[in-house]
Amino acid sequence: MKVVAIGGGTGLSTLLRSLKKQVGESIESLSAIVTVADSGGSTGKLRKIYKIPAPGDIRNCLVALSESEEILKSLFQYRFKGEGLEGHAFGNLFLTALTEITGSFLEAIRISSEILKIKGEVIPSTTQSVQLCARFEDGKTVVGEEEITLYGKETGSRIVGMWIEPKKVSSPISAIAKVETADLIIFGPGSLYTSIIPNLLIEDLRSCVERSKALKVFVVNIMTQPGETDGLSASGHLKVFLELTGLSKVDVALVNTKMPPHKLLKKYLEQGQEPVIPDVSAIAKMGVEVYAEDLIGERENYIRHNEEKLLEAFLRILNEKSPKV
To answer: If you write DSSP's letter for every residue of 8-71 in order, what string do you get?
Structure first.
């Protein structure tokens, strides 16, 4: 089984840590196609100075797939303190330096992959420096991933259209090849508008995904995200994904059905985040098969998908839905 996961942020990293456990067994190859449109923090600063694709989500995915010693993983995730380098992740600086030295963002990722001994492959959705653009229902156009989320938070206005600048960018040949040969394509979890959808705004990648005969699975987020998905149910997430990417369909939606512990839920509610309502029947009416599961982890300080539960769900989907070979 050849698996391709498309997305970004902490959601994709969680998914990759889960799936890598099956590489060499039920999964023949695992590839992550990762957004590079991030504009905030360390990534945003490096993009502006060096005119490179955003390295932050790439770094997180490399570490998620790493089989190297813990010290190396910790090194790539280490953030500097003090003036000058404050807030920069070592891995971001490392990828930037390698890109400058080799002249290739892809080569920088390849070398980093060897150092971290990753169990799979990480590919940027494009090697060009792109900006994410959004049009809101109030008519405002906002440029920049971080700025888009901030504007949504401040105004409560909904995003009604998205694109990238420059528009005529392409995906690496390796990304297209992975999609063309995939048996399973997974979208999410992660920030719907700023981590998942941006990858499919690249025309050649979107067209390749649309043509693919692979089983396509959409992983619905557990909680809403302020400024992006406030009030969106599970079916609402899926509808937005299909409308803004232009994809005609997905085959399966994986939806969490468990409510978080009250103490933790209260903390999230105070931050404007609510559980995504698992309106399973509405998704089924869209012609999408639903796997409704308890997918929440047992962490005390945050609500995220549990790696083991995700893996169990995907093994079940693979067993029941994939063609037997």
So the answer is: -HHHHHHHHHHHGGGBTTTBSEEEEEE-----SHHHHHHHHHH-----HHHHHHHHHHB-S-HH
Question: Residues in the chain, how many?
Answer: 325
pLDDT by residue, tens only, the chain of 325 residues? 999 999 998 899 999 999 999 999 999 999 999 999 988 888 888 988 898 999 999 999 999 999 998 999 999 999 999 787 888 999 999 999 999 999 999 999 999 999 999 999 999 999 999 999 999 999 999 999 999 999 999 999 999 999 999 999 999 999 999 999 999 999 989 999 999 999 999 999 999 999 999 999 999 999 999 999 999 999 999 999 999 999 999 999 999 999 998 889 999 999 999 999 999 999 999 999 999 999 997 666 789 999 999 999 999 998 887 654 3
Is the whole-model pTM more than 0.85? yes
- Output the six-digit token pair for 96: 């930037």
Pick the CATH number of 2-321 from 2.40.50.100, 3.40.50.450, 3.40.50.10680, 3.20.20.100: 3.40.50.10680
- Positive or negative, the CA dihedral 282, 286, 292, 295 is negative
Instruction: Decide if 108 contacts 18 (C-beta within 8 A).
Output: no
